[in-house]
Amino acid sequence: MDKEFERIVHLLKEKEEIGQALDIPVQLRKGLLRQVVGYADHFLDTLDERKAYEASGYDSTDTDQGFEVSEIGSEMDAMLDFIGERVDTTGLNPASGGHLGYIPGGGIPASALGDYLAAISNRYAGNFYASPGAVRMENAMIRWTGRLVGYKEGFGGNLTSGGSIANLTAILTARTAKGVKGKDLTQNVVYLTQQAHHSLAKGLNMACMGECVVHRIALDSGYRMDIAALRKQIEADVHDGLKPFLLIANAGSTDTGAVDPLDAMADVAQENGMWFHVDAAYGGFFLLTEHGKQMMRGIERSDSVVLDPHKGLFLPYGSGIVLVRDINHLLRANSYEANYMQDADQQTLERSPAELSPELSKHFRGMRMWLPLKLHGLAPFRANLEEKLLLARYFRHEVHGLGFEVGPEPDLSVVVYRYVPPTGDADAFNKELAHTIQQDGRVFISTTVLGGAFMLRLAVLSFRTHRKDVDVLLEQLGKLTR
């Protein structure tokens, strides 16, 4: 054995011994798990004592060096103390029932268990050949969601990291399905409203479609797309030699929670040969309720739809779904060839997520959705959504009784409102009102601007938000406006 080879053998043994630290021995692993689970249990058990928003923690401190890594490892108890001080007690607390400002709430515990199992096994859920069970689980979630939307056989979809990537995937699919080429961009027209989520504008740019003509259609009094205005704009565009291409609807807009007239929009899309996309990232899972089914009548006629389980199913952030009524459009938009994937091509019993998405490497997202749905059944999810619909109406009634101006009856679980004082600037008053409530931190509200007016905004969707949390806000608003 020559010296170089001896050196290699020696180094292999040395590096193996050092690297084995990553495969934690069973007793140490159990101890670490006890520490982490203990921290998580304490976090959950003390949620009622924690603020929904902590205004401190934004400035740099000496302890920020704890974010940095080095050659030498750290003790778990010290790291958990650091997380408790610098991560879990600063800024917005999405796990709090007092989180009334933005749409997503805290992740349900069962999803964390699913994520743990998915990460431990690290199943590759991108390809059926690599993990038939993981792909079947994800496809089962797609089939269940598609049936909830009302799609018939032949649809397809993908579990994404959220609504933004889901919207981008839908836009790319629409471009492919309608044969939109770069040279034709300036002749193709996209129709949406000012209430459309910003991810759609980003998606158009990322899909190299920023040169399309984009029309923001007028809204009715409920902040929904005005169908008469849409028809008038399409007529003008066709007269000018433009091609109506993509019609985008809201099923729960970000600002107001409004649901556009989906059935009527589907008629317009069909009449003009347009791709009809529905952004139901926020509102989609209200289809589990009778109210949601009525509000979103016509969603089953869309060519594509986006839903976020990290909103309406209360999963952790990083959970989105895109569905396409005809799976063939999705396949064509994401077709690829790679020699090193030739073995995978032999297994075609199920469509693989990598065939239906821009992603190849992907987290096994299906487990975080499947496990809680299987564990709890649908009933508690439906009850939570129905409760949120009721809470929004309860709040609107009560805050109006306090003398606040209120927006239209909520389509879902967002309420816009503002206080107009007898004297002084109303916008400045409401800004200060929001700031005071946020600094208090027991509950967190957000703001927006509608028709040039500064508005306060209640968004109820956390599974931990109940009447007592809404009453805390109402009590504060009452005291601050007396």
Brief summary of the model shown:
α14 packs parallel to α16 (467-480). It is built from 16 helices and 13 strands. It has a seven-stranded mixed beta sheet with strand order 3-9-8-7-6-4-5, with helices on both faces.
Describe the structure.
This protein has 482 residues and is of the alpha/beta class. It has 2 domains: 263 residues, Type I PLP-dependent aspartate aminotransferase-like (Major domain) (Aspartate Aminotransferase, domain 2, 3-Layer(aba) Sandwich), CATH 3.40.640.10; 102 residues, Aspartate Aminotransferase, domain 1, CATH 3.90.1150.10. The protein is 43% helix and 13% strand. The strands form 3 sheets. The chain has a 7-stranded mixed sheet, sandwiched between helices. A 4-stranded antiparallel sheet has the order 10-11-13-12. A two-stranded antiparallel sheet has the order 1-2. Helix 5 crosses helix 13. The longest helix is centred in the last third of the chain and has 23 residues. About 1% of the residues have low confidence.
Could you give me the name of the CATH homologous superfamily of the largest domain? Answer: Type I PLP-dependent aspartate aminotransferase-like (Major domain)
What CATH architecture of the largest domain do you see?
3-Layer(aba) Sandwich
Number of strands: 13
The structural domain count equals 2
SS summary, helix count: 16
Helix content: 40-55%
Low-confidence stretches: 338-344
Blueprint (SSEs and pairs):
Layout: H1 3-19, H2 26-45, E1 53-54, H3 76-86, E2 91-92, H4 109-121, H5 132-149, E3 156-160, H6 163-177, E4 188-193, H7 198-206, E5 213-217, H8 227-239, E6 243-250, H9 262-271, E7 275-280, H10 290-295, E8 304-307, H11 309-312, E9 320-324, H12 327-333, H13 366-376, H14 379-401, E10 405-406, E11 414-418, H15 426-440, E12 446-450, E13 453-459, H16 467-480
Parallel strand pairs: 4-5, 4-6, 6-7, 7-8
Antiparallel strand pairs: 1-2, 3-9, 8-9, 10-11, 11-13, 12-13
Helix pairs in contact: 4-13, 5-13, 6-7, 6-12, 14-16
